[in-house]
Amino acid sequence: MATMVWKDEYSVGNDLLDEQHKQLIETVNELKGGAALGEVLAALRHYGDVHFRTEEGMLEASDYPDLERHRGYHEAFRTWLEDTEEKHRSGSESAESRRDIYNYLCVWLANHFLVYDKAFETWLK
Ligand SMILES: [Fe+2]
Hints:
By secondary structure, this protein is mainly alpha-helical. It has one domain (12-124): Hemerythrin-like (Four Helix Bundle (Hemerythrin (Met), subunit A), Up-down Bundle). It contains five helices and no strands. It has helices spanning 15-29, 37-61, 67-87, 95-117, 121-124. Helix 1 (15-29) runs antiparallel to helix 4. It is globular and about 45 Å long. The structure holds fe (ii) ion. The site of fe (ii) ion (FE2) has 6 residues, from helix 3 and helix 4.
């Protein structure tokens, strides 16, 4: 599996959000090392919450017209994360499930940055 790396095209033109997005990528990449799946998922849930709150707060403060839909994307991610944590709570993790989860997270993040977060780049400026 290819490692996800930050690209300038992911930038949403806001330093704090970009930094948090980089941190999310770093957290996801811990799966490529020896980190336990459950620990990475828990860190992602914690850090994702912090980040989503920051991002939604900025969108709310600027009266972003598509905020509710954007919240929905974040919510869907939370739900996926909770389900995935639940599924692996027993401690069972195969190399295959690790790889599938890693791939899912990389695709989700890249797509979210490039499509849904990009959509508010101009609005926040
Ligand atoms: Fe977002």
